[in-house]
Write a structure and sequence with these properties.
The complex is a heterodimer. Chain A has helices at 13-30, 55-66, 80-83, 87-96, 111-118, 134-148, 166-177, 206-209, 234-241, 245-248, 271-274, 281-300; strands at residues 44-49, 70-75, 101-106, 122-128, 155-159, 181-185, 201-203, 215-218, 256-258. Chain A is an alpha/beta fold. The radius of gyration of chain B is 21 Å and the shape is globular. In chain B, strand 7 (88-93), helix 2 and strand 8 (121-124) form a beta-alpha-beta unit. The chains are: A alpha/beta, B alpha/beta. The A-B interface holds A 82, 86-88, 106-111, 113-114, 117, 128-132, 166, 169, 192-195, 197-198, 228 and B 189, 195-206, 274-276, 317, 320-325.
Chain lengths: 306, 436
Amino acid sequence: MKKDLLGIGDLTRDEIYLILDTAEAMREIGQRPIKKVPTLRGKTVVNLFYEPSTRTRTSFEIAEKRLSADTLNIAVAASSVLKGETLADTAMNIEAMAPDVIVLRHASSGACHLLSRICKSRVINAGDGMHEHPTQALLDAFTIREHKKRIDGLNVTIVGDLLHSRVLRSNVLLLTQLGADVCVCGPSTLVPIGIERLGVRVSTRVDEAVRDADVIMMLRIQQERMHGAFFPSVREYFNTFGMTPARVARAKPDVIIMHPGPMNRGIEISSEVADGPYSVILEQVANGVSVRMAVLYLLAGGVEGD
Amino acid sequence: MKRLLKGGRLVDPANGRDGVFDLLVDGDRIARVGRDLHVDGAVAVVEIPSGLVVCPGLIDMHVHLREPGQEHKETVATGTAAAVAGGFTAVACMPNTSPVNDNAGVTEYILKKAAEANLARVYPIGAVSRGQAGEQLAEIGELRQAGCVAITDDGRPVATAMLMRRALEYAGMFGMPVIEHCEEQTLKGDGVAHEGFHASALGLRGIPGQAESIMALRDIALAELTGGAVHVAHMSARQTLDAVRWGKSRGARVTCEVTPHHFVLTDEMLRAPIAYDTNVKMNPPLRDAADRDAMLAGIADGSVDAIATDHAPHHYDEKRVEFDHAPFGITGLETAVSLCFDRLVHAGVISVSRLVELLSVNPARILQVTGGSLAEGAPADISILAPDLAVTVSAATMRSKSRNTPFDGWTLRGGVAATIVGGRAVYVNEAVGLQV
């Protein structure tokens, strides 16, 4: 593997499978009475979060602790980004204290690339702007594979705010690389220009897009980014694109419903679907810990000079 | 003492010359041009090797010298040092300084700094509106008297159609063009890169080419309405080129310029060699290959009037940030000639003579300043170019105060041998070794 995990684009197919297979082994650790192994003992991991995050930060922290790493959380308020210290200076200061891994969440696309150029520490992207969220895509793939035993040849439909979603970009790169047939669906105001060049089908009709889907993946409507007039109202969005039991019924009978969280119930997904029998949303959260343990282990767990 | 530039290929399209001529400089003027000139009396003879090009001084009609107010990025002294090292004998500097060049005091300050530096000629460009706020016309008559040669609100477009109409009408009285940064601001939004596949894949907010062409169409319509002259700055989109061609075909007084980076680079640079390199963030953004090819076609077929650099120095600290937060712009004065030779002349897009039109004759004509000609009696502003010089771009050794160029490390064919302003050699490239 490369020094850093900045995006799914950094990974080969074999490396993706290596991470997923390693995550299987990591999951077993989480099922023990004492959920801790000494693998990363003496390693320092800094979780540097420039955006509020409960799920991802907690997931990384639990993963780090189960591997016995020394963890440090730094939360930088969004309001201080522009007036405070630059990311480059913060990075150099943290680097001076010689951590082994920096996990970065940042509102600007490419922030991890900047950090990676400055730091010798390994950098894991925990979500950068609208660019990528690679560990989310890996845990999604892990969850899909667990249910479907494969990814190659599956029909995966991703519905929601495609434009602003880093989860979308990482999942498209990963799923197409592993041979899934991916359809992305959302209002045409929220479809990134040229996205079909990533090897996906684009649809603006959700009823058609979910037909025969093995997997339906919902994306969050990021209300904080909706200052542009992307759609008239939340009500109309739900009517046109919201995932309802009637729409789920058009998919394959054994479809699974996924959501990276946090969910807006009644906006992109109805509670009947979110809490219903096809939902694997909480399994995704559980698997997130195993997958992040795998990534941390594979990046930082090796012998020096690796 | 008189100085005779002997031999070399003299390219002077304004006077229909392209061949081996001698050129006699007397003081700050061109005294004579001819074949095998014989000069009586004391004269210093400069032997010009046959591979070099002697042409009227290059004029960069779009630079940001940053003074007053942003001297950490550039000063008139460092900017004009960069200009002459890049082969330019004159530059026209944009008014978005701090304070804005919207009054004679600022114009005079810039000209005073230029006189102190005593390198390239500096032609200040005044603001269209007070403070470039897009509301009230600046005192354009006074700016003209103080030495401004054109007006613009560059950095942003002239805010409203009505203000643009008035600017064209009013500037027309003084024979000045309005230089327009064409950008429909609501369509640009908070975009940071060309709207297309690469921006989408990288999660960067996009700016479509139509943000530029819509404003160009507005301005061309207003040029027709008023009879004023509009010059489209740093054109980047193929739709804008079509708009300019349409305007010209109708007889509207419209001209345009293209920067080297827009005819050399594309938005693929957002990904590689350095992902999210803030030195490929500029406004207008690098566009796609079809746009880049359209700019080359426009340069070849004569639709494009001028090449200008949009030299936009920014401090290292300002560029070493997240892509979203970095300021737009790159330096250009010290790379333009090499890029033009390498990508236009040697690539077979245009002749040397056409290049001299784009870099000298036409900028002089659009701004109505002296230059663009090696006629007898004209000021001795002369660029001596080395079309076959192997150049490796080195940001670290540039004269500009800033280093924000995406071309660092590039090897290009073509460069500058010497730059002569008013009969004085203000730059001599040691790599060529001309004894000027």
